[in-house]
């Protein structure tokens, strides 16, 4: 079926007004594969935007990956990273000059401004100071979420960005994922009538929880940020974004139930490598996860071409938190968290973040007066109450090859693409996640955490 006939068929199927994204193919009865077309407001660039990456870990590599592939759009000319392995790796990928390879974020700002933008992908507690300094010096900024660890710091960044007329793009990458773009489009164009309620679910997956929020960098909320922000500010943001209504009230409950010292099995030891008697049957065995299954090993900075990879990782388990027993960490992040939100126009939403699942990938149900939407990021099904028929939309996106399991549905690189255009054209309207647009969901997160701790419903004041 050619594209014109396909669009005609789709218009007849679900109503002409809700066809906006480009349909690639009809893949079954009432099933369509689609992608997000190029923004007509994007322009060819005379020269690439230049950027400095502050923090060359996982997220810095993801955003830098776009620059490595699309060299005509953005060029990384500097890096600040204290980890020498990561600094070397990043500099090699982007051919960064020796004088632009810096150790700390402070080193970047000791020099006069030498790029168009900075990418801030440092740990959560190191977002605020480099962002404020970058704004003061006139840089545009791609800022990894969460914006900052406190509401005051978030508002400080917002105010300085407005004062200095700079772009701050918050990495709420789900706003750029074709799956959620289609969901928002359908809702905005009346496919389900008036939105009544939303149920949104983030299954973290049990070993991901153990890796990042029990053993990993975000295990202690006091040293980083609460899990509702560190992991799920994406989710609060996407719920707010797709329904496009202001939030009014929020309540939350949750706790750290399982990953506690009193739940440590008899015979377990401080580390999985210490001769733990139940290691072979433990679902959180570091030896199984990192050595045998070779999962999530980027945290170990394994040198390329190493002969004994397993031996190298095993030694790391003996000296880092990643080898410690999950029941004996200094962790305090809740392993289950439920949130209820009241939006304007009597729209309600419930959000649940759960550690104990065998799967990941966000699930969403949107209930409307004339239909509903049900999806899991691999497909989105629209059911029309009037026709009593459903239509399935399957998103197609170029996801980051190394991070296909990120759960971001291709949004990472689509965000960078729009950021480059916004900086080049000096037009923040080309972005959907500027700090002006993104700060409300952060306030929702701060209020949710206060609600959880105080056991009360919190008003959301913007």
UniProtKB/TrEMBL annotation:
Residues 184-458 form the Gfo/Idh/MocA-like oxidoreductase C-terminal domain. Residues 54-171 form the Gfo/Idh/MocA-like oxidoreductase N-terminal domain. This is Gfo/Idh/MocA family oxidoreductase. One of its GO terms (molecular function) is nucleotide binding. Transmembrane segments: none annotated. Pfam families: GFO_IDH_MocA, GFO_IDH_MocA_C. InterPro entries: Gfo/Idh/MocA-like_OxRdtase_C, Gfo/Idh/MocA-like_OxRdtase_N, Gfo/Idh/MocA_Oxidoreductases, NAD(P)-bd_dom_sf. It comes from Pedobacter chitinilyticus. Gene3D superfamilies: Dihydrodipicolinate Reductase, domain 2 (3.30.360.10), NAD(P)-binding Rossmann-like Domain (3.40.50.720). It comes from the Bacteria. SUPFAM superfamilies: Glyceraldehyde-3-phosphate dehydrogenase-like, C-terminal domain, NAD(P)-binding Rossmann-fold domains.
